[in-house]
């Protein structure tokens, strides 16, 4: 998912092949060998994002105006979207699109409403109670891409779990569009209005993340952007880099950068379906990753043939062919399903489809993935729009330690300790002993004084 511009396609498809057959590779070797974007690109992005952070923090709205002109080709005095623009976008929304958004919202809400964990009270004796309470953060900033594709579905994916968590202050940002008078895409605005979000900003890319993380003071009639506690949402490499650099100032969901799909398939898979699903994610961005992992050379050849045929017919053919021909895409040939599972766990895909015999059983052996799609009738496109799951997911291997966006992203677990005199006295000797062992006698004294 990206906000970069489309580029020319290569002369032909170059879907590269990596052969792991007959090789015993360690986890580190697998992680180093699977298809990935070039590291230099990430280093370049970090320097550019550092420059944006410095500009926005030092010059506020003035810097945002310049960045909107440079990156989006629009002139703006203030990025806040007016209530009239939000109302107009919803009023002008195509009825079929509105019905689809409402169905997606309904399914996402049903899933999100069941995700909130219960508070816990544990009695450790008479008068000794320790609790864990889940409390929503106060304010969140949600980012919705709108460059090559106006991802109105991402409005739903960001807003619904935040509302289910009980967040009271929600702000949303999406890139300004030259074709729409410097406002975000009207479908994005309509989705925000449909969900009751009225604080919307026409800010794109890394600068949106920075604005939410640090806030921007207002002056005179200029409304400020108040800092948030958590920033969420997908985006391109610059958005993901910005989230990484502000982490610690604010919480983030994950580094949800340019989209990626991996498909684990065997000889039972249908080449046309595999190719269609690889293309569905490649059309997001020239840097999108599409990876096939298979133990069937015959399937791999058939999929490449289908890619060549289908890619030429799809609307965004140039973008798709560039993504499929990049270093981040390709087919990985393995000895058997066992090695294929190991490769998938090492790759830790944002989206992982399982197209094998006994797909549900195989899916149960995958530990590292943002989301797992089981069988022929659970394509990533379903998860992007109407499965009820969330499509804001960790990329670039971070699914090995990060989760997709969910209700707990917007919650904090606060521990509450409530002991009475008798309960404290029961463990007071242990506290004194441990404080002495750690050479922190003041800790013990703070207990002793209560019983003198």
Describe what you observe in this structure:
The chain has helices at 27-33, 39-72, 83-91, 95-113, 152-165, 186-194, 205-214, 237-246, 271-282, 297-313, 317-325, 337-347, 359-363, 380-385, 421-437, 441-448; strands at residues 17-19, 120-123, 128-136, 139-143, 169-174, 200-202, 230-232, 251-252, 260-265, 289-294, 330-333, 349-355, 369-374, 411-419. It has 452 residues and is an alpha/beta fold. The strands form 3 sheets. Strands 1-11-10-9-12-13 form a 6-stranded parallel beta sheet, with helices on both faces. Strands 6-5-4-7-8 form a 5-stranded parallel beta sheet, sandwiched between helices. Strand 4 (139-143), helix 5 and strand 5 form a beta-alpha-beta unit.
**Count of runs of 4 or more consecutive helical residues:** 16
The class by helix and strand makeup works out as alpha/beta
Rounded mean pLDDT score: 94
Note the overall shape: globular
Separation of termini? Answer: 64 Å
List low-confidence stretches. Answer: 1-7
Profile the largest sheet.
6 strands, parallel
DSSP strand tally: 14
Helix-residue proportion = 40-55%
Strand content: 15-25%
Give the SSE string.
EHHHHEEEHEHEHEHEEHEHHEHEHEHEHH
| Rounded Rg | 25 Å
Major β-sheet strand ordering: 1-11-10-9-12-13
């Amino acid at each position: 998912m990206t906000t970069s511009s489309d580029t020319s396609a290569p002369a032909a498809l170059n879907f590269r092949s990596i052969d792991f057959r007959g090789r015993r590779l360690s986890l580190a070797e697998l992680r180093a060998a699977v298809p990935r974007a070039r590291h230099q690109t990430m280093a370049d992005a970090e320097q550019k994002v550092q420059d944006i952070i410095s500009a926005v923090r030092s010059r506020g709205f003035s810097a945002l105006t310049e960045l909107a002109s440079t990156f989006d080709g629009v002139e703006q005095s203030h990025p806040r979207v007016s209530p009239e623009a939000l109302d107009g976008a919803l009023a002008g929304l195509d009825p079929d699109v509105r019905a689809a958004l409402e169905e997606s919202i309904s399914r996402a809400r049903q899933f999100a409403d069941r995700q909130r964990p219960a508070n816990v009270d544990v009695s450790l004796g008479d008068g000794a109670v320790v609790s864990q309470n889940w409390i929503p953060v106060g304010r969140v900033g949600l980012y919705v891409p709108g460059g090559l594709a106006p991802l109105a579905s991402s409005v739903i994916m960001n807003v619904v779990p935040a509302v289910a968590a009980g967040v009271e202050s929600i702000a949303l940002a999406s890139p300004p569009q030259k074709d729409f008078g410097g406002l975000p895409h009207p479908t994005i605005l309509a989705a925000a209005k449909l969900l009751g979000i009225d604080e919307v900003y026409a800010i794109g890319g890394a600068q949106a993340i920075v604005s939410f993380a640090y806030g921007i003071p207002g002056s005179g009639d200029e409304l400020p952007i108040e800092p948030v506690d958590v920033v969420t949402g997908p985006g391109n490499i610059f958005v993901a880099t910005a989230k990484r650099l502000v982490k610690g100032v604010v919480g983030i969901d994950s580094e949800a950068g340019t989209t990626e799909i991996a498909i684990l398939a065997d000889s039972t898979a249908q080449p046309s379906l595999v190719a269609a699903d690889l293309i569905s994610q490649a059309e997001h961005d020239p840097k999108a990753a599409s990876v096939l992992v298979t133990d069937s050379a015959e399937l791999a050849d058939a999929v490449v043939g289908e890619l060549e045929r289908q890619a030429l017919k799809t609307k965004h053919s140039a973008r798709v062919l560039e993504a499929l021909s990049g270093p981040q895409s390709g087919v990985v040939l393995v000895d058997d399903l066992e090695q294929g599972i190991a490769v998938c766990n090492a790759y830790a895909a944002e989206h992982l489809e399982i197209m094998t015999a006994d797909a549900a059983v195989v899916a149960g052996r995958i530990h590292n993935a943002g989301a797992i799609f089981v069988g022929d009738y659970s394509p990533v496109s379903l998860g992007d729009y109407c499965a009820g799951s969330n499509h804001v997911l960790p990329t670039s291997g971070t699914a090995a330690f990060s989760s997709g966006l969910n209700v707990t992203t917007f919650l904090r677990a606060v521990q509450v300790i409530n002991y009475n005199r008798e309960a404290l006295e029961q463990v007071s000797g242990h506290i004194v002993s441990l404080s002495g062992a750690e050479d922190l006698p003041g800790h013990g004294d703070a207990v002793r004084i209560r019983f003198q």
